[in-house]
Design brief:
Layout: H1 2-5, H2 9-12, H3 23-34, E1 45-53, E2 57-61, E3 68-71, E4 86-93, E5 101-104, H4 105-123, E6 126-135, E7 138-143, E8 146-151, E9 170-179, E10 184-188, H5 190-206, E11 213-222, E12 225-229, E13 234-238, E14 259-267, E15 274-277, E16 298-306, E17 310-316, E18 319-324, E19 346-355, E20 360-364, H6 378-381, E21 387-395, E22 399-405, E23 408-413, E24 435-444, E25 449-453, H7 462-468, E26 474-482, E27 486-490, E28 496-500, E29 517-526, E30 531-535, H8 575-587
Parallel strand pairs: 3-5, 13-15, 18-20, 23-25
Antiparallel strand pairs: 1-2, 1-4, 2-3, 4-5, 6-7, 6-9, 7-8, 9-10, 11-12, 11-14, 12-13, 14-15, 16-17, 16-19, 17-18, 19-20, 21-22, 21-24, 22-23, 24-25, 26-27, 26-29, 27-28, 29-30
Length: 588
């Protein structure tokens, strides 16, 4: 029994693979084994070695206690994968339900891509990407397998109008922004171009001076001018400095991306604003005007602008003359220039003034026709006593101006409108635009004056009234109005008479009131002053004597004693007066 107790069973008996080692040997072996394994962490990228490839998986050793499997589909971007190749993989699980190590090359590429992108942003590195497609507002660029957004404004320093030309091409970009919340990356190609242009830009600005001629490309166009890229520096070519002639929009003579030569007109101290000119590269058109052009010359051109005061006629690009509205017609009544010309009309004109030093010119249209006041038949056509028709052009307090023909105006005094009606203002008789028939009373060709009359077309009815309303004759009159001096009476034939307060007394001592129709006796008749004074009191009192006849007065524009009709009357209808006169003369 003692031999059995001394027997070492641990060194003799074996129960399976790996057993038969002493405890110390086992610990030594475990230490040697564990020294060949790596400490790994899930969700990280690690390098591994391909140890086998089959139809479904690629077997990869990462130095762990077991090999990992990666679907062979994740290696489609490689032409061939074989044992011994080193690849980066992402550890998804150290051990799944089957005890297998699960790896992913696809996720490793994504993680590595984001690491490279973040490094590119931090270190301001230039990376190369592939433009996959265009999208709203820009392009989608593949960098390290991640889709990044390249805004249209970041493609180039000049505006890009066709994004499709970049699709499918390699492009160098810089990462300018990373949004981890939605895995969004923004890149720029423009910053690379700007960096290349900095040196060129600095050289241009340092050497910039007024009068310098530069070459540039039109990068933007507006209604007030165009912006020109001078090689990294932008300058403004204002619309007024494009051409010596008038243009409404730069697109009439220029187009985008066109290469042009310009001259530096001005720039500020900081050299941030550069004013450019194009027309200044050619001589001013005024300097090449024909020496034969002088006052009185006839010229042809095109109307380029119409204003309230006149129109501008362009004789050549940059050479314009003003046709004032007063020089468009011989008529003295100014009208709107648009009544005579419109933009685009090609017309002929006469040079009235010319100043080549100041580059100013005034033109006239009416000078192409004869001045109506200088025509040979003017004296005979408008001789005193001739009758004409004209259009009322203007009304004043003292009369109206009548246009008989273009350029020939005459004045009709307010007192020459009617024989019977007292007219205080011409508007009581006519309005502007009415046609009026007149007779010439006076003609002064030298001073261009023409006096006209309307009432002279009819005979003076006061010659007849003298026999109808003799002093002492009785007529039924109606009181029209009354004041503290007397009353205005309405007589037959539309005439007005006047009676003083004392002559309005009735036989019973009362006064004749407004609206009352009663007999009045003529106390005074003045054909020259067109005045009739009457009295009702004289109907029953013999002591009321007629007023002494006054000397004839000169014609005035008004007066309280002059007579006037209550309404407009056409004395051509007063045949009854003539008949009455004949009967009265027959009875004598």
């Amino acid at each position: 029994m003692s031999n059995k107790e001394e027997f070492d069973w641990d060194s003799f008996d074996t129960k399976g693979f790996g057993e038969g080692y002493s405890k110390a040997d086992r610990q030594k072996m475990e230490a040697l084994y564990e020294g060949t394994l790596n400490e790994i962490t899930e969700k990280e990228v690690i390098k591994g070695t391909v140890v086998g490839v089959n139809d479904k998986d690629v077997i990869i050793n990462i130095g762990f206690k077991s090999d990992g499997l990666v679907p062979v589909s994740e290696f489609r971007d490689l032409e061939s994968i074989k044992p011994g190749d080193e690849v980066e993989v992402f550890i998804e699980e150290q051990e799944n339900a089957l005890g297998q190590l699960i790896l992913s090359r696809k996720k490793a590429k994504i993680v590595k891509a984001w690491q490279d992108i973040e490094a590119a942003l931090a270190e301001d590195n230039v990376i190369e990407g592939l433009v996959k497609r265009r999208t709203k507002g820009g392009l989608i660029v593949d960098i390290y397998g991640v889709e990044a957004f390249l805004p249209g404004s970041q493609i180039d320093v000049k505006p890009i109008r066709d994004f499709d030309i970049y699709v499918g091409k390699q492009m160098e970009v810089k990462v300018v922004k990373i949004n981890h919340a939605n895995d969004n990356v923004v890149v720029s190609h423009k910053v690379l171009i700007e960096k290349d242009l900095e040196k060129q830009k600095a050289e241009i600005l340092n050497n910039l001076e007024k009068g310098q001629v530069l070459e540039g490309v039109i990068k933007n166009m507006t209604n007030f001018g165009v912006f020109i890229d001078l090689g990294g520096v932008d300058g403004l070519l204002h619309i007024t400095d494009i051409s010596w002639g008038r243009i409404n929009h730069p697109e009439e003579v220029l187009q985008l991306d066109e290469k042009v030569q310009v001259v530096v007109l001005d720039f500020d101290d900081d050299k941030k604003r550069i004013s450019l000119g194009m027309k200044q590269l050619t001589a001013h058109p005024w300097d090449s005007l024909a020496s034969s052009l002088e006052v009185g010359s006839k010229v042809k051109g095109k109307i380029v602008n119409v204003a309230d005061y006149g129109a501008f006629l362009e004789l050549a690009a940059g050479v314009e003359g003003l046709i004032h509205v007063s020089e468009m017609s011989w008529s003295q009544h100014l009208r709107n220039p648009a009544d005579f010309v419109k933009v685009g009309d090609e017309i002929e004109a006469v040079v009235l003034t010319l100043d080549k030093d100041e580059r100013k010119m005034s033109l006239g249209i009416k000078q192409l026709t004869e001045d109506p006041w200088t025509k040979d038949d003017m004296v005979t056509k408008y001789a005193v006593g001739t009758k004409h028709k004209g259009v009322v052009r203007n009304l004043t307090n003292f009369g109206l101006f009548l246009e008989l023909e273009e350029g020939i105006d005459g004045l009709v005094h307010v007192s020459d409108l009617s024989w019977t009606k007292k007219i205080k203002h011409p508007s009581e008789f006519v309005k502007v635009g009415d046609e009026l028939e007149v007779q010439v009373l006076e003609l002064d060709v030298d001073n261009r004056r023409l006096a006209l009359g309307h009432k002279q077309l009819e005979e003076n009815p006061w010659d007849t009234f003298e026999s109808v309303f003799p002093v002492g004759s009785v007529h039924k009159c109606t009181v029209v109005s009354k004041n503290d001096k007397g009353a205005v009476l309405e007589l037959p034939y539309g005439l007005e008479g006047f009676a003083t307060i004392k002559n309005l007394e009735k036989e019973d001592g009362s006064q004749v009131e407004v609206g009352e129709a009663i007999d009045f006796k003529v106390a005074e008749f003045s054909k020259e002053d067109k005045r009739i004074v009457l009295s009702h009191t004289a109907m029953f009192r013999d002591d009321i004597k007629p007023a002494p006849k006054k000397a004839a007065k000169k014609k005035t524009e008004g007066g309280t004693t002059s007579t006037a009709p209550a309404e407009k009357s056409t004395l051509g209808d007063l045949d009854a007066l003539a008949d009455l006169k004949e009967k009265m003369e027959g009875k004598k």
